[in-house]
Amino acid sequence: MRIVLRGEHPFLHPLRSITKSLFSFNSPKFSGKTLPIVSSKKTQGFLRCIAMASTTTTAPVVHQVKERIELTEIERKIFDRLLATLRHFGLTNQLRVAGGWVRDKLLGKDCYDIDIALDNMLGSEFVDKVRDCLLSTGEQVQGVAVIPCNPEQSKHLETARMRLFDMWIDFVNLRSEEYSDNSRIPTKQKFGTAEEDAYRRDLTINSLFYNINTDSVEDFTQRGIADLKSGKIVTPLPAKATFLDDPLRVLRAIRFGARFGFLLDEELKKAASCDEVKDALAAKISRERIGVEIDLMISGNHPVKAMTYIYDLTLFSIVFSLPPNFEPAKSENCDRLCITYLDATWNLIQLIGDSTFNDEQRRLSLYAALFLPLRNTISKDNKAKKIPVVNYIFRESLKRKASDAETVVNLHSALDKFLSLIPFLESDGDIQLIEVDWGKGLDDVPLNSKLRVLTGLLLREIKDFWRVALLLSTLLYPPDVNCTENFPKQYFQLDKQRDLFKAVESAITKLGLEKVWDVKPLVNGKDIMSVLQLKAGGPLIREWQQKLLAWQLAHPDGTMEESIDWMRQAHSKRVKTQ
Is omega for the bond preceding 488 within 30 degrees of 0, making it cis? Predict the structure, then answer.
């Protein structure tokens, strides 16, 4: 059937924000008013759909839904080839594009993820026929693949993939399933109708089909279009049954709710937060799949809203599971504090200017902010080695890549060092740095060069992420404020933190330390061994490498010869005093 959309839906109630109470520092320097939240909005299409943009705003987002799907030239060519295959073999199959592509096209958004649903044929069978049809007309077949089903991880369908006009297209069959009472794995699976398939989808807005044969949108649940227009996240069948079928759908519902600024249905929220569904999410879904969903949320356009949904639905400890033993103990408001830091960081990035950070820096800055209250929490592995809990969350709870864990842990480790340097960098030379707790072994560095040396050494540790470390440091400055105990009575002063960020960033640039991590040492290990007359390396070589690097930072125009001369003199003095 062809769907024609008419009318508008009224405003929905805004989602309660848990971040109305933020921080302020207990210092005259950081007193003042709280800034309004900064957000951006885009509108596309023709018919309006009203929903809230994020949990931290009260202004609505206007979604506009198109009356019909407009195909791009590439999409039309792809669909023409598929219809040509039907004609070539005399097939009567109905070809439907399912799910997200239909939703996004109706919202006027680009989508390059095309899933074809077949009514009475396996995807692999149809792909073989498309390939044969293309070869019969002399066209090139770009690529074919088959992804097997994996019921243990809630992937119940075999998926065939084919590359057409440089786009990968997925082909699956429509299905109907029967389940036993105590399992989410289907006990019986057969070809289903489009209506049966629509009702087994995760959300009504993802249950829409575009019928390629008839060039029409099909809404078999009779709710998909309405919920798209009214901005609701609803399951086609009862929410609890839908989530127990595949518990990952809880996180997908959250992600789409945040992405589009839609509100979660009350029944859906009740089901998502019930113990049975939470237990199923923890026990039956791989941590890799959970990690992928979380990463999509953090990388999305409304990460604060997504994480707030996870908090409100009491899913935080399920998603970001902690090791059995760690210290210090987790504070009662730790999860809420995580959201608050994330919110402040997100809005501070907007104030500073999103272009200051690339996508990877922005993504990892949000992770670092989210886990900021846990930065000093440590667990021990089976060899009694101390491991940051944040590392455990990345490696075990989310199964993300090791480099993500390493970067965020390094950022957390750098914060105290940055905090110790901020007063001197901010002062523009009015205050001279004499000593910091972590800058030991730099007695040979001239006093007027100490700030440049220490800052340079710090930037060489965190490299391209130094602005991210500075960003997070501004939220903790001044360092004598215990935000955990005072939360939520204090408020972040984001305009002050933006100015502080800009001042310190400017000071580092004036010191000529941009890309300092790319500067090669003037003296290598072999030269050091020659001067010290050593036959093998060891701790002494590393010590002198650090000293020589400090000398080089203090003397940016110095030469290798000058560096070696200084080393000889310093070494001679050390020998005489021993």
Answer: yes
